[in-house]
Write a structure and sequence with these properties.
Blueprint (H helix, E strand, L loop, with lengths): L3 E14 L2 E14 L3 E5 L6 H8 L7 E6 L2 E2 L5 H11 E4 L11 H12 L3 H14 L15 H13 L5 E5 L7 H16 L3 E5 L3 H6 L2 E6 L2 E4 L3
Helix pairs in contact: 3-4, 3-5, 5-6
Length: 227
Amino acid sequence: MSEAVIEVEGVSREYLVGSERVQALREVSFQVAAGQFVAIVGPSGSGKSTLLGILGCMDRPSRGRYRLAGQEVCLLDRDRLAGLRNRQIGFVFQSFHLLPQHTALENVQLPLVYAGTPARERRERALDLLARFGLEQWAAHRPSQLSGGQRQRVAIARALVARPSLLLADEPTGNLDRRTGGELLDLIASLNASGLTALVVTHDPEIAGRAQRILSIRDGELREGEI
C-alpha cells in the first residue's frame, strides 16, 4: 500500500446534549493511502459528518488518534492546525459556500489570499484551474450568474488551488441534477486518476460505486465494504 495520508486509530466523539451524553463515533479506525478514492456512506445521523469534521481538522476527537500526512493532528495548537488544514486539505461542500459578492476568479483565489501567495501567482493559478474546468469565460461572473454545475466546479477549483494532498467532499452531487452530478463525478474521478486522494461523504450509490473503497458508518461504528 502507498504511504497513508489519513491514519485514524480508535477515534470516538461524544457530545453533551443537555444532560445527555451522545456518542457520535465509536472507536473508529482506518487508513487511506495516497491516491485512493474512498466513499463514506451511511444513513442520516450515523456519524458521517462528525467524521468528516475530524478528518478536515474542524473538530477534535474525544478519544483516539488522527494523523494527517504523518502529523499528529490532536497535538497541534489552533494556528498550526489551521496551517496544516490550509496546506493539505481541499473542501467541497454540498451548498458550494461561494461568496456571492465575489467573482468566480476571486472565489477560487481565496485560499491563496489566506496563505499570503503573491497576487500575480494567485491570479495565474486560479485562471489555470478555471480553464481546466471549462470556466475561463466565466471568470468575471458572480455565483448568481452561474448554473449549479458551474458553481460546483468553481468550488472544486477553489478546493484545489492550494494544491492539497487530500480532497474532502460532503454530498457534492446533492444539489445537482443527474447529468450535472455525473459530470462532477467524472471530474472527481479524473482528479483521482491524476494522483489526488479523494474522500467523499455521500448518499449516492453511483458515487459509492465509482470509489475504490467504501466505508460504511452506522450508529457511529465503521465497517468496510458495505452500503
